[in-house]
Amino acid sequence: MAVDRAYIDTSIILAILLETEKSNLAQQVLEAYSEYDFIISGIAINEALYIATYEYYWQKGEIKGRHGLRKLIAKKGYPEEVLGTIDSFLKDINVEIINDYFDRTEYLRILREYKLLPNDAQIALTCKHYAIGTILTFDEDFKRVPWLKVIP
Which domain holds residue 83? Predict the structure, then answer.
């Protein structure tokens, strides 16, 4: 029997890594769907890395706005603590990393029809291409995508 698959969105990763008000719910969702094969693509990892790096430097008082992050990364690089935490999280939940799928025509159609942000449209297109029907996310925008079951 085939195992169901669920895409892990950036919002779930960040809720766990940054200890937000949704951290407990994110953990509960991962536990409730632990029988699923967890899937992620590069775009969600990229988003999580960018936001977690920004939060890390912001909490340390080393950055005041998003525009300064590029210069700070060029000077100091990515914090090992952030890289290691994201890597450990992905290993701990035994997630399969897949390639993002891109088809220009379909991407533009999804952007227009479902009114998604560019990265969300990319994730939706990737899920459609790989026949992934469930997404674990706190992003309500994915509820407009008919082929995705949004959890929670």
Answer: 5-151
CA distance 104 to 86: 30
Q: What does residue 41 show for φ and ψ, rounded to 5 degrees?
A: -125, 170
Q: Which of 113, 104, 119 is nearest to 147 (CA)?
A: 113
Q: What is the pTM of this model?
A: 0.94
Would the pLDDT of 143 be above 80? yes
pLDDT band of 67, cuts 50, 70, 90? confident
Q: Is 19 left (phi over 0), alpha (psi -120 to 50) or beta?
A: left
Amino acid at 98: I
d(CA 130, CA 38): 13
How far is Cα 15 from Cα 138, in angstroms, rounded to an integer? 9
pLDDT of residue 1: 62
Q: Write the CATH number for 31.
A: 3.40.50.1010
DSSP 76-102: H-S-HHHHHHHHHHHHHTTPEEEPPP-
Question: Number of structural domains, the chain?
Answer: 1
Q: Strand, helix or coil at 149?
A: strand
Question: What is the DSSP code (8-state) at residue 16?
Answer: H
